[in-house]
Design goal:
The complex is a heterodimer. By secondary structure, chain A is an alpha/beta fold. Chain A contains five helices and twelve strands. Chain A has a single domain, classed as Class I glutamine amidotransferase (GATase) domain (Rossmann fold, 3-Layer(aba) Sandwich), CATH 3.40.50.880. In chain A, strand 11 and strand 12 form a beta hairpin. Chain A is globular, with a radius of gyration of 16 Å. By secondary structure, chain B is of the alpha/beta class. In chain B, 44% of the residues lie in helices and 13% in strands. Chain B has 13 helices and eight strands. In chain B, helix 6 links the parallel strand 5 and strand 6. The chains are: A alpha/beta, B alpha/beta. At the A-B interface, helix 1 and helix 2 of A face helix 1, helix 2, helix 7 and helix 12 of B.
Chain lengths: 224, 293
Protein backbone atom coordinates (compact mmCIF):
# COMPACT_ATOMS: atom_id res chain seq x y z
CA UNK A 1 0.00 0.00 0.00
CA UNK A 2 1.37 3.43 -0.90
CA UNK A 3 2.21 5.91 1.81
CA UNK A 4 0.36 9.17 1.96
CA UNK A 5 3.17 11.47 0.97
CA UNK A 6 1.49 14.78 1.50
CA UNK A 7 4.06 17.56 1.42
CA UNK A 8 3.42 20.83 3.18
CA UNK A 9 -0.16 20.00 3.97
CA UNK A 10 -1.57 21.16 7.26
CA UNK A 11 -3.76 18.05 7.30
CA UNK A 12 -0.83 15.72 7.91
CA UNK A 13 0.68 14.14 11.00
CA UNK A 14 4.43 13.64 10.84
CA UNK A 15 6.43 10.86 12.48
CA UNK A 16 9.94 11.85 13.53
CA UNK A 17 12.09 9.56 11.40
CA UNK A 18 15.45 9.46 13.14
CA UNK A 19 15.39 6.19 15.07
CA UNK A 20 12.87 3.83 16.62
CA UNK A 21 9.28 2.81 15.96
CA UNK A 22 8.61 4.94 12.89
CA UNK A 23 6.95 2.38 10.61
CA UNK A 24 4.63 1.26 13.39
CA UNK A 25 3.14 4.74 13.85
CA UNK A 26 2.87 5.34 10.09
CA UNK A 27 0.94 2.09 9.83
CA UNK A 28 -1.58 3.14 12.48
CA UNK A 29 -2.09 6.60 10.99
CA UNK A 30 -2.71 5.03 7.59
CA UNK A 31 -5.28 2.62 9.06
CA UNK A 32 -7.23 5.63 10.31
CA UNK A 33 -7.14 7.21 6.84
CA UNK A 34 -4.96 10.06 8.06
CA UNK A 35 -2.37 11.74 5.87
CA UNK A 36 1.04 11.05 7.35
CA UNK A 37 4.68 11.46 6.48
CA UNK A 38 8.13 10.75 7.83
CA UNK A 39 9.94 13.88 8.94
CA UNK A 40 13.68 14.27 9.33
CA UNK A 41 14.72 17.31 7.26
CA UNK A 42 13.96 20.92 8.17
CA UNK A 43 11.40 21.40 5.38
CA UNK A 44 9.49 18.27 6.36
CA UNK A 45 8.07 19.96 9.47
CA UNK A 46 6.44 22.86 7.65
CA UNK A 47 2.76 23.23 8.50
CA UNK A 48 2.31 19.83 10.14
CA UNK A 49 -0.83 19.56 12.25
CA UNK A 50 0.87 17.14 14.58
CA UNK A 51 4.14 15.34 15.22
CA UNK A 52 4.66 11.93 16.78
CA UNK A 53 7.98 11.29 18.48
CA UNK A 54 8.19 7.49 18.52
CA UNK A 55 9.70 5.07 20.96
CA UNK A 56 13.37 4.30 20.53
CA UNK A 57 16.33 5.25 22.67
CA UNK A 58 15.87 8.69 24.20
CA UNK A 59 19.60 9.36 24.49
CA UNK A 60 20.09 8.62 20.78
CA UNK A 61 17.08 10.71 19.73
CA UNK A 62 18.13 13.63 21.93
CA UNK A 63 21.67 13.60 20.50
CA UNK A 64 20.37 13.59 16.93
CA UNK A 65 17.86 16.39 17.61
CA UNK A 66 20.67 18.52 19.00
CA UNK A 67 23.31 17.69 16.40
CA UNK A 68 21.05 18.40 13.45
CA UNK A 69 19.39 21.48 15.00
CA UNK A 70 15.97 19.85 14.70
CA UNK A 71 15.20 20.81 18.28
CA UNK A 72 14.85 24.51 17.36
CA UNK A 73 12.70 23.63 14.36
CA UNK A 74 10.37 21.45 16.42
CA UNK A 75 10.08 24.19 19.06
CA UNK A 76 9.33 26.78 16.37
CA UNK A 77 6.61 24.62 14.80
CA UNK A 78 5.24 23.82 18.25
CA UNK A 79 4.84 27.53 19.01
CA UNK A 80 3.20 27.92 15.59
CA UNK A 81 0.55 25.40 16.72
CA UNK A 82 1.83 21.91 15.89
CA UNK A 83 0.69 19.37 18.52
CA UNK A 84 3.14 16.72 19.69
CA UNK A 85 2.65 13.18 20.98
CA UNK A 86 5.57 11.29 22.49
CA UNK A 87 5.44 7.53 23.08
CA UNK A 88 7.97 6.00 25.51
CA UNK A 89 11.30 7.64 24.51
CA UNK A 90 9.25 10.41 22.89
CA UNK A 91 7.64 11.14 26.26
CA UNK A 92 11.09 11.44 27.83
CA UNK A 93 12.12 14.01 25.21
CA UNK A 94 9.01 16.08 25.94
CA UNK A 95 9.39 16.14 29.74
CA UNK A 96 10.58 19.21 31.62
CA UNK A 97 12.40 17.06 34.15
CA UNK A 98 14.23 13.78 33.58
CA UNK A 99 15.69 11.88 36.54
CA UNK A 100 19.52 11.82 36.25
CA UNK A 101 19.52 13.47 32.83
CA UNK A 102 19.03 16.79 31.06
CA UNK A 103 15.61 17.55 29.61
CA UNK A 104 15.42 17.83 25.82
CA UNK A 105 12.34 19.64 24.46
CA UNK A 106 10.78 20.36 27.89
CA UNK A 107 7.24 21.00 26.62
CA UNK A 108 5.22 19.36 29.38
CA UNK A 109 5.50 19.97 33.11
CA UNK A 110 6.30 16.52 34.45
CA UNK A 111 9.12 14.47 35.90
CA UNK A 112 9.95 11.19 34.18
CA UNK A 113 12.36 8.37 34.99
CA UNK A 114 13.97 6.49 32.11
CA UNK A 115 13.90 2.69 31.95
CA UNK A 116 12.07 2.59 35.25
CA UNK A 117 10.90 -1.04 35.35
CA UNK A 118 14.21 -2.87 34.87
CA UNK A 119 15.54 -4.95 32.01
CA UNK A 120 13.77 -6.38 28.96
CA UNK A 121 12.73 -9.33 31.18
CA UNK A 122 10.54 -6.82 33.05
CA UNK A 123 8.77 -5.59 29.89
CA UNK A 124 5.08 -6.51 29.98
CA UNK A 125 1.60 -6.07 28.57
CA UNK A 126 -1.61 -5.18 30.37
CA UNK A 127 -4.79 -3.25 29.64
CA UNK A 128 -6.75 -0.37 31.11
CA UNK A 129 -9.64 1.94 30.39
CA UNK A 130 -8.59 5.52 29.71
CA UNK A 131 -11.79 7.46 30.32
CA UNK A 132 -10.83 10.50 28.26
CA UNK A 133 -10.12 8.24 25.29
CA UNK A 134 -13.04 5.77 25.37
CA UNK A 135 -15.06 3.18 27.27
CA UNK A 136 -13.26 0.11 25.95
CA UNK A 137 -10.14 -1.32 27.61
CA UNK A 138 -6.97 -0.35 25.76
CA UNK A 139 -4.14 -2.89 25.40
CA UNK A 140 -0.93 -1.49 26.86
CA UNK A 141 2.59 -2.56 25.85
CA UNK A 142 5.45 -1.49 28.12
CA UNK A 143 8.97 -2.06 26.75
CA UNK A 144 11.79 -0.97 29.05
CA UNK A 145 9.35 1.80 29.79
CA UNK A 146 9.84 5.04 31.68
CA UNK A 147 7.56 6.10 34.57
CA UNK A 148 6.06 9.55 34.91
CA UNK A 149 6.61 10.33 38.59
CA UNK A 150 4.61 13.56 38.90
CA UNK A 151 2.98 16.22 36.77
CA UNK A 152 2.42 19.96 37.14
CA UNK A 153 -0.99 21.52 37.74
CA UNK A 154 -1.67 22.41 34.09
CA UNK A 155 -1.17 18.76 33.13
CA UNK A 156 -4.06 16.33 33.07
CA UNK A 157 -3.40 12.74 34.14
CA UNK A 158 -5.04 10.36 31.65
CA UNK A 159 -3.92 7.09 33.21
CA UNK A 160 -2.40 6.30 36.57
CA UNK A 161 -1.33 2.75 37.48
CA UNK A 162 -0.10 1.97 40.99
CA UNK A 163 2.57 4.56 41.85
CA UNK A 164 3.18 5.97 38.40
CA UNK A 165 1.47 7.92 35.64
CA UNK A 166 1.32 6.16 32.27
CA UNK A 167 -0.42 8.80 30.13
CA UNK A 168 -0.91 12.55 30.49
CA UNK A 169 -1.52 15.66 28.42
CA UNK A 170 -1.59 19.40 28.42
CA UNK A 171 -3.26 21.58 25.81
CA UNK A 172 -0.67 20.86 23.12
CA UNK A 173 1.25 17.79 24.18
CA UNK A 174 0.26 14.15 24.72
CA UNK A 175 2.55 11.62 26.39
CA UNK A 176 2.23 7.86 26.85
CA UNK A 177 4.91 5.65 28.37
CA UNK A 178 3.40 2.60 26.64
CA UNK A 179 3.28 1.80 22.91
CA UNK A 180 -0.18 1.94 21.26
CA UNK A 181 1.57 1.49 17.89
CA UNK A 182 2.60 -2.04 18.94
CA UNK A 183 -1.00 -3.21 19.37
CA UNK A 184 -4.02 -3.35 17.06
CA UNK A 185 -5.66 -0.53 19.02
CA UNK A 186 -6.05 2.77 17.17
CA UNK A 187 -7.80 4.66 19.97
CA UNK A 188 -4.81 6.78 21.03
CA UNK A 189 -3.94 7.65 17.43
CA UNK A 190 -7.53 8.74 16.89
CA UNK A 191 -7.40 10.74 20.12
CA UNK A 192 -4.22 12.50 19.01
CA UNK A 193 -5.64 13.22 15.54
CA UNK A 194 -8.65 14.91 17.15
CA UNK A 195 -6.29 16.89 19.37
CA UNK A 196 -4.60 18.07 16.16
CA UNK A 197 -7.95 19.13 14.75
CA UNK A 198 -8.02 16.28 12.22
CA UNK A 199 -10.86 13.89 11.59
CA UNK A 200 -9.88 10.28 10.88
CA UNK A 201 -11.85 9.11 7.83
CA UNK A 202 -11.76 5.39 8.56
CA UNK A 203 -14.33 4.10 11.00
CA UNK A 204 -13.12 1.09 12.95
CA UNK A 205 -15.41 -0.53 15.52
CA UNK A 206 -14.08 -0.07 19.07
CA UNK A 207 -10.86 1.28 17.52
CA UNK A 208 -9.43 -2.26 17.33
CA UNK A 209 -8.31 -3.08 13.80
CA UNK A 210 -8.91 -6.82 13.26
CA UNK A 211 -6.51 -6.77 10.27
CA UNK A 212 -3.60 -5.51 12.34
CA UNK A 213 -0.86 -8.07 13.04
CA UNK A 214 2.41 -7.68 14.90
CA UNK A 215 4.07 -7.92 11.44
CA UNK A 216 2.07 -5.04 9.99
CA UNK A 217 4.91 -2.53 10.27
CA UNK A 218 6.96 -4.54 7.78
CA UNK A 219 4.85 -3.36 4.83
CA UNK A 220 6.51 0.04 5.26
CA UNK A 221 9.92 -1.59 5.14
CA UNK A 222 9.82 -4.14 2.30
CA UNK A 223 13.01 -5.31 0.61
CA UNK A 224 11.10 -6.76 -2.35
CA UNK B 1 8.59 -18.60 26.39
CA UNK B 2 4.98 -17.70 25.71
CA UNK B 3 3.89 -16.07 22.47
CA UNK B 4 3.34 -12.67 24.04
CA UNK B 5 6.82 -12.60 25.57
CA UNK B 6 8.33 -13.51 22.19
CA UNK B 7 6.35 -10.70 20.56
CA UNK B 8 7.62 -8.22 23.19
CA UNK B 9 11.18 -9.35 22.45
CA UNK B 10 10.74 -8.82 18.71
CA UNK B 11 9.22 -5.43 19.50
CA UNK B 12 12.21 -4.32 21.59
CA UNK B 13 14.35 -4.92 18.48
CA UNK B 14 11.86 -2.84 16.48
CA UNK B 15 12.53 0.05 18.85
CA UNK B 16 16.25 -0.21 18.02
CA UNK B 17 15.64 0.32 14.28
CA UNK B 18 17.73 3.05 12.69
CA UNK B 19 20.21 2.86 15.53
CA UNK B 20 23.76 1.73 16.20
CA UNK B 21 24.73 -0.99 18.70
CA UNK B 22 28.33 -0.72 19.85
CA UNK B 23 30.80 -3.23 21.28
CA UNK B 24 32.25 -2.01 24.57
CA UNK B 25 34.77 -3.68 26.89
CA UNK B 26 34.50 -1.52 30.03
CA UNK B 27 32.39 1.12 31.80
CA UNK B 28 34.30 4.01 30.28
CA UNK B 29 33.66 2.80 26.74
CA UNK B 30 30.02 2.08 27.54
CA UNK B 31 29.58 5.68 28.67
CA UNK B 32 31.28 7.00 25.52
CA UNK B 33 28.95 4.83 23.42
CA UNK B 34 25.82 5.98 25.24
CA UNK B 35 26.91 9.60 25.09
CA UNK B 36 27.47 9.26 21.33
CA UNK B 37 23.89 8.01 20.87
CA UNK B 38 24.24 4.21 20.74
CA UNK B 39 20.83 2.49 21.02
CA UNK B 40 22.41 -0.41 22.90
CA UNK B 41 25.82 -1.67 23.92
CA UNK B 42 27.33 -5.13 23.53
CA UNK B 43 29.39 -5.88 26.63
CA UNK B 44 32.38 -8.14 25.95
CA UNK B 45 35.92 -8.62 27.25
CA UNK B 46 37.67 -8.33 23.93
CA UNK B 47 36.44 -6.83 20.68
CA UNK B 48 36.53 -9.24 17.70
CA UNK B 49 39.78 -7.74 16.34
CA UNK B 50 41.52 -8.73 19.59
CA UNK B 51 39.83 -12.14 19.75
CA UNK B 52 41.23 -12.69 16.25
CA UNK B 53 44.70 -11.57 17.33
CA UNK B 54 44.85 -13.56 20.57
CA UNK B 55 43.42 -16.81 19.24
CA UNK B 56 42.51 -19.59 21.67
CA UNK B 57 38.99 -20.30 22.92
CA UNK B 58 36.79 -17.22 23.21
CA UNK B 59 34.05 -17.59 25.84
CA UNK B 60 31.25 -15.59 27.44
CA UNK B 61 32.65 -12.50 29.19
CA UNK B 62 33.15 -12.13 32.94
CA UNK B 63 29.67 -11.56 34.43
CA UNK B 64 31.12 -8.98 36.84
CA UNK B 65 32.24 -6.84 33.90
CA UNK B 66 28.84 -7.18 32.20
CA UNK B 67 27.09 -6.26 35.47
CA UNK B 68 29.22 -3.12 35.86
CA UNK B 69 28.36 -1.98 32.36
CA UNK B 70 24.67 -2.71 32.96
CA UNK B 71 24.83 -0.50 36.03
CA UNK B 72 26.62 2.32 34.23
CA UNK B 73 24.23 2.90 31.29
CA UNK B 74 20.49 3.22 30.72
CA UNK B 75 20.48 1.87 27.14
CA UNK B 76 19.88 -1.87 26.63
CA UNK B 77 22.83 -4.14 27.36
CA UNK B 78 23.58 -7.14 25.18
CA UNK B 79 26.21 -9.84 25.72
CA UNK B 80 27.47 -12.80 23.74
CA UNK B 81 27.06 -16.50 24.43
CA UNK B 82 28.85 -19.19 22.43
CA UNK B 83 26.85 -20.94 19.72
CA UNK B 84 25.06 -23.85 21.37
CA UNK B 85 26.20 -22.95 24.90
CA UNK B 86 22.80 -22.81 26.53
CA UNK B 87 24.26 -22.58 30.04
CA UNK B 88 26.14 -19.39 29.19
CA UNK B 89 22.77 -18.14 27.94
CA UNK B 90 21.13 -19.21 31.22
CA UNK B 91 23.74 -17.20 33.12
CA UNK B 92 23.19 -14.12 30.98
CA UNK B 93 19.45 -14.44 31.53
CA UNK B 94 20.03 -14.76 35.29
CA UNK B 95 22.16 -11.61 35.07
CA UNK B 96 19.05 -9.91 33.62
CA UNK B 97 20.71 -8.21 30.69
CA UNK B 98 18.43 -7.19 27.81
CA UNK B 99 19.52 -9.29 24.82
CA UNK B 100 21.82 -12.26 24.13
CA UNK B 101 23.89 -12.52 20.95
CA UNK B 102 24.46 -16.19 20.14
CA UNK B 103 27.63 -15.34 18.36
CA UNK B 104 30.09 -16.90 15.94
CA UNK B 105 32.67 -14.41 17.25
CA UNK B 106 33.05 -16.71 20.26
CA UNK B 107 34.26 -20.28 19.82
CA UNK B 108 31.24 -22.54 19.21
CA UNK B 109 30.41 -24.89 22.09
CA UNK B 110 28.30 -27.28 20.01
CA UNK B 111 28.91 -28.25 16.41
CA UNK B 112 25.44 -29.71 15.89
CA UNK B 113 22.92 -27.60 17.79
CA UNK B 114 22.32 -23.93 18.25
CA UNK B 115 20.67 -22.88 21.52
CA UNK B 116 16.95 -23.71 21.79
CA UNK B 117 15.98 -20.09 22.23
CA UNK B 118 12.28 -20.90 22.73
CA UNK B 119 13.20 -22.10 26.25
CA UNK B 120 14.24 -18.61 27.34
CA UNK B 121 12.37 -15.45 28.28
CA UNK B 122 15.29 -13.25 27.28
CA UNK B 123 15.54 -12.32 23.58
CA UNK B 124 18.30 -13.53 21.24
CA UNK B 125 19.93 -12.03 18.18
CA UNK B 126 21.71 -14.42 15.81
CA UNK B 127 23.98 -14.01 12.79
CA UNK B 128 23.14 -15.23 9.30
CA UNK B 129 24.83 -15.32 5.89
CA UNK B 130 21.72 -16.04 3.88
CA UNK B 131 17.95 -16.29 4.18
CA UNK B 132 17.91 -19.99 5.05
CA UNK B 133 20.27 -19.45 7.97
CA UNK B 134 18.23 -16.44 9.16
CA UNK B 135 14.97 -18.40 9.04
CA UNK B 136 16.48 -21.41 10.83
CA UNK B 137 17.55 -19.11 13.67
CA UNK B 138 14.09 -17.52 13.78
CA UNK B 139 12.56 -21.00 13.92
CA UNK B 140 14.79 -21.70 16.94
CA UNK B 141 13.38 -18.60 18.62
CA UNK B 142 15.70 -15.71 17.63
CA UNK B 143 13.86 -12.36 17.95
CA UNK B 144 16.34 -10.43 15.82
CA UNK B 145 18.80 -11.24 13.02
CA UNK B 146 22.07 -9.67 11.94
CA UNK B 147 24.41 -10.36 9.08
CA UNK B 148 27.50 -12.25 10.16
CA UNK B 149 29.91 -10.27 8.05
CA UNK B 150 33.49 -11.06 9.02
CA UNK B 151 33.93 -9.61 12.49
CA UNK B 152 37.14 -7.90 13.55
CA UNK B 153 38.38 -7.21 10.02
CA UNK B 154 37.20 -3.65 9.42
CA UNK B 155 36.26 -5.01 5.99
CA UNK B 156 32.60 -4.65 5.06
CA UNK B 157 32.69 -6.98 2.06
CA UNK B 158 31.27 -10.03 3.83
CA UNK B 159 28.40 -8.10 5.43
CA UNK B 160 27.53 -6.78 1.97
CA UNK B 161 27.67 -10.29 0.55
CA UNK B 162 25.35 -11.60 3.29
CA UNK B 163 22.84 -8.78 2.92
CA UNK B 164 22.82 -9.02 -0.88
CA UNK B 165 22.32 -12.78 -0.63
CA UNK B 166 19.36 -12.36 1.72
CA UNK B 167 17.83 -9.65 -0.46
CA UNK B 168 18.22 -11.76 -3.60
CA UNK B 169 16.57 -14.75 -1.95
CA UNK B 170 13.74 -12.57 -0.62
CA UNK B 171 13.16 -11.17 -4.13
CA UNK B 172 13.16 -14.69 -5.58
CA UNK B 173 10.57 -15.80 -3.03
CA UNK B 174 8.24 -12.85 -3.59
CA UNK B 175 8.33 -13.40 -7.35
CA UNK B 176 7.90 -17.17 -7.53
CA UNK B 177 4.55 -18.94 -7.76
CA UNK B 178 3.31 -20.49 -4.55
CA UNK B 179 3.96 -24.07 -5.70
CA UNK B 180 7.67 -23.40 -6.16
CA UNK B 181 8.18 -22.40 -2.52
CA UNK B 182 8.40 -26.00 -1.25
CA UNK B 183 11.35 -26.85 -3.46
CA UNK B 184 13.05 -23.49 -2.89
CA UNK B 185 12.67 -23.84 0.88
CA UNK B 186 14.05 -27.39 0.77
CA UNK B 187 17.06 -26.47 -1.38
CA UNK B 188 17.94 -23.48 0.77
CA UNK B 189 17.27 -25.07 4.17
CA UNK B 190 14.36 -22.76 4.98
CA UNK B 191 11.55 -23.73 7.35
CA UNK B 192 8.58 -23.79 4.94
CA UNK B 193 6.12 -21.71 6.98
CA UNK B 194 8.70 -18.98 7.48
CA UNK B 195 9.57 -19.00 3.76
CA UNK B 196 5.87 -18.36 3.06
CA UNK B 197 5.88 -15.54 5.60
CA UNK B 198 8.85 -13.90 3.90
CA UNK B 199 7.11 -14.27 0.53
CA UNK B 200 4.09 -12.45 1.96
CA UNK B 201 6.01 -9.71 3.76
CA UNK B 202 8.79 -9.12 1.22
CA UNK B 203 11.35 -9.03 4.02
CA UNK B 204 12.33 -10.87 7.20
CA UNK B 205 9.54 -10.97 9.79
CA UNK B 206 11.96 -9.61 12.42
CA UNK B 207 14.43 -6.75 12.51
CA UNK B 208 17.67 -7.38 10.59
CA UNK B 209 20.82 -5.43 11.48
CA UNK B 210 24.16 -5.29 9.68
CA UNK B 211 27.20 -6.60 11.54
CA UNK B 212 30.76 -7.64 10.82
CA UNK B 213 33.39 -5.30 9.40
CA UNK B 214 31.64 -1.93 9.61
CA UNK B 215 34.31 0.70 10.25
CA UNK B 216 33.20 4.02 8.72
CA UNK B 217 30.07 6.20 8.48
CA UNK B 218 29.95 5.32 4.78
CA UNK B 219 30.00 1.58 5.63
CA UNK B 220 27.02 2.11 7.94
CA UNK B 221 25.10 4.11 5.33
CA UNK B 222 25.92 1.46 2.70
CA UNK B 223 24.39 -1.30 4.80
CA UNK B 224 21.34 0.84 5.57
CA UNK B 225 20.82 1.59 1.88
CA UNK B 226 21.02 -2.14 1.20
CA UNK B 227 17.99 -2.49 3.47
CA UNK B 228 19.36 -3.25 6.93
CA UNK B 229 17.29 -1.95 9.85
CA UNK B 230 20.27 -0.81 11.90
CA UNK B 231 23.98 -1.32 12.55
CA UNK B 232 26.28 -3.22 14.90
CA UNK B 233 29.79 -1.82 15.17
CA UNK B 234 32.26 -4.11 16.87
CA UNK B 235 35.94 -3.27 16.66
CA UNK B 236 35.30 -0.33 14.31
CA UNK B 237 34.87 2.27 17.05
CA UNK B 238 37.26 1.46 19.87
CA UNK B 239 40.05 0.32 17.51
CA UNK B 240 39.98 3.68 15.70
CA UNK B 241 42.03 6.81 16.45
CA UNK B 242 39.18 8.82 18.01
CA UNK B 243 36.41 6.50 19.28
CA UNK B 244 34.05 9.19 20.65
CA UNK B 245 34.13 11.15 17.40
CA UNK B 246 33.76 8.06 15.22
CA UNK B 247 30.91 6.70 17.35
CA UNK B 248 28.95 9.94 16.91
CA UNK B 249 29.71 10.01 13.20
CA UNK B 250 28.40 6.47 12.66
CA UNK B 251 25.23 7.30 14.62
CA UNK B 252 24.65 10.34 12.38
CA UNK B 253 25.34 8.43 9.17
CA UNK B 254 22.98 5.64 10.21
CA UNK B 255 20.10 8.02 10.92
CA UNK B 256 20.66 9.98 7.69
CA UNK B 257 21.86 7.06 5.57
CA UNK B 258 20.08 8.27 2.45
CA UNK B 259 21.40 11.84 2.67
CA UNK B 260 24.92 11.90 1.14
CA UNK B 261 25.56 15.48 2.35
CA UNK B 262 25.00 14.50 5.97
CA UNK B 263 27.02 11.28 5.62
CA UNK B 264 29.79 13.38 4.07
CA UNK B 265 29.71 15.84 6.98
CA UNK B 266 29.89 12.90 9.37
CA UNK B 267 32.90 11.47 7.53
CA UNK B 268 35.16 14.52 7.76
CA UNK B 269 38.08 14.71 10.19
CA UNK B 270 37.60 11.40 12.00
CA UNK B 271 41.28 10.40 12.05
CA UNK B 272 42.42 6.86 11.29
CA UNK B 273 39.84 4.11 10.97
CA UNK B 274 40.70 0.71 12.44
CA UNK B 275 43.32 -1.19 10.42
CA UNK B 276 41.59 -3.43 7.89
CA UNK B 277 42.16 -7.06 6.94
CA UNK B 278 41.87 -8.50 3.46
CA UNK B 279 39.55 -11.52 3.74
CA UNK B 280 41.63 -13.60 1.29
CA UNK B 281 44.66 -13.25 3.56
CA UNK B 282 42.91 -14.78 6.57
CA UNK B 283 43.57 -18.54 6.85
CA UNK B 284 40.26 -20.33 6.16
CA UNK B 285 40.19 -21.93 9.62
CA UNK B 286 40.28 -18.45 11.18
CA UNK B 287 37.19 -17.15 9.36
CA UNK B 288 34.36 -16.61 11.83
CA UNK B 289 31.35 -16.43 9.49
CA UNK B 290 31.55 -20.14 8.72
CA UNK B 291 30.80 -21.02 12.35
CA UNK B 292 27.19 -22.06 12.88
CA UNK B 293 24.96 -23.73 10.33
Amino acid sequence: MALHLVKNSSAAIGVLDLQGGVHEHLDHLERLGLASRRVKQEDDFTALAGLIIPGGESTCLARLLNIFSLKEIILKEFHRGMKIWGTCAGAILLAQKVVNDQPCLGLIDMEIERNSFGSQLDSFVSEAIIEAVGDEPIPLTFIRAPKILRVGKDVKILLKINDYIAAAENENVLVTVFHPELTGCLALHRYFALKCGLKPTASIPNNIDPHWESYSWTRHSRIA
Amino acid sequence: MDKKRHELNIQLAQMLKGGVIMDVTNVEQAKIAEEAGAVAVMALERVPADIRKHGGVARMSDPAMIAQIKKAVSVPVMAKARIGHFVEAQLLEALRIDYIDESEVLTPADEECHIDKTKFNIPFVCGARNLGEALRRIAEGAAMIRTKGEAGTGNVVEAVRHMRTMNREIRQLTEMPHEEVTGFAKTNGMPYELALKVKELGRLPVVNFAAGGIATPADAALMMQLGCDGIFVGSGIFKSADPALRAKAIVKATAYFNDPKKVLEASIGLGEAMPGLEIAQIPPDQLLAGRGW
